[in-house]
Design a protein that fits this description.
Layout (H helix, E strand, L loop, with lengths): L2 H14 L2 H7 L4 H15 L4 E3 L4 E3 L1 H25 L6 E8 L1 H18 L2 E8 L6 H4 L3 E5 L7 E9 L1 E5 L1 H7 L13 E4 L7 E6 L2 E6 L4 E3 L2 H10 L3 E5 L4 H6 L3 E2 L5 E2 L2 E8 L6 H14 L4 H9 L14
Parallel strand pairs: 3-4, 3-5, 8-11, 8-12
Antiparallel strand pairs: 1-2, 5-15, 6-15, 7-12, 7-13, 9-10, 9-14
Helix pairs in contact: 1-2, 1-3, 1-4, 2-3
Length: 319
């Protein structure tokens, strides 16, 4: 019996809640997972999991083993990463999930650069426009807007997703220009209900919070649909600036209600909470911070071309 392998399998089963999913994430069969758990229980002469045809539950003994083993294996992984790295070169597999907008605009190229810096690292990347649980779905790291999460996940802010309400000149010519957030209820609106599930937009006049009620005609979880709705010329939408750098610079999209600030969203990194953050996650986060920090490059370029947007962009805008 490979005791370490059996312990890792046990931890994975607890984290994902089933033998089948543990087998999928570990790239093995369900029977192999079951065999490892049986071997571990036989070795310890203890019941760690209670199985039935409908459910899987952990015993008190299993809970105690999980809590004691998790930090030990995390420290072991950290030690292995350090001694096997040459000048912090990384190896193994790095599984990443990210929202489609940031993937298409920036991360796809960033990952090519990151892999070229760590030639022995195998990158597996998936894009999702929904919340991904890195533990349940087997990712090393998930890049996505902030959302509620359980205590088993660590969250680190990567970069701000500052947003603006925008429309095309054609839309504003046809429907008029709203002068106050309360007037948005009278306009055609496309809305990302993944980032903001409510039917109102929060604006700030100085430190005063103002609610802008909306009645969306398009609901979506992806910024690509919002961008298309605005460019079609028949909607207002709240879009992150990374989606519309060129359109704002050219005047194809026009900010509305520029005298009000919008509460920003945040692109954050989600990964399993352990006593030691794995080396590949630490190095990757530092890589992203060096590129983007609190003042992303697309905002720098926009401010050079459109300095009148300074009230809504830039590193001082923390709303």
């Amino acid at each position: 019996m490979n005791e370490l392998e059996c312990l890792r399998t046990f931890l994975k089963v607890i984290e994902v809640g089933s033998f089948a999913e543990a087998a999928r994430q570990m790239d093995t069969s369900k029977s192999v997972v079951a065999k490892r758990i049986n071997q571990l229980e036989a070795s310890l002469e203890l019941e760690l999991l209670q199985r039935s045809t409908r459910r899987l539950s952990i015993t008190d003994t299993g809970t105690a083993l999980y809590e004691r083993t998790l930090p030990i294996l995390a420290e072991l992984d950290e030690a292995k990463a350090e001694v096997s790295s040459v000048e912090w070169g990384l190896s193994g597999t790095f599984r990443i999930s990210c929202i489609s907008s940031f993937t298409a605009r920036y991360l796809a190229r960033d990952l090519c650069e990151f892999q070229s810096q760590h030639e022995n690292l195998r990158i597996e990347m998936q894009q999702h426009d929904r919340f991904c649980d890195p533990v349940q779905e087997g990712f090393d790291i998930c890049l996505q807007p902030e959302a509620q999460h359980g205590g088993h996940i660590e969250v680190v802010e990567v970069l701000p997703l500052r947003r603006m309400a925008v429309a095309t000149p054609a839309y504003l010519s046809k429907h008029g220009i709203p002068q106050h957030p309360s007037e948005l209820i009278n306009h055609r609106f496309a809305h990302n209900h993944h980032i903001s599930p409510s039917t109102s937009i929060e604006f700030f006049d100085g430190n005063k919070l103002i609610q802008g009620p909306i009645a969306p005609i398009i609901l979506t979880n992806t910024g690509w649909q919002l961008r298309a709705a605005v460019l079609w010329g028949d909607c207002i939408a709240m879009l992150p600036t990374l989606f519309m750098e060129d359109e704002l610079a050219s005047g194809e999209m026009v900010p509305i209600l520029p005298q009000y600030r919008v509460r920003r969203a945040t692109l954050s990194a989600y990964f399993r909470k352990t006593p030691f953050v794995p080396m590949k996650i630490r190095i990757f986060l530092n890589f992203l911070r060096q590129k983007y920090s609190s003042f992303p490059p697309w905002e720098r370029r926009l401010l050079e071309l459109r300095p009148e947007l300074a009230g809504q962009l830039g590193p001082r805008n923390k709303a």
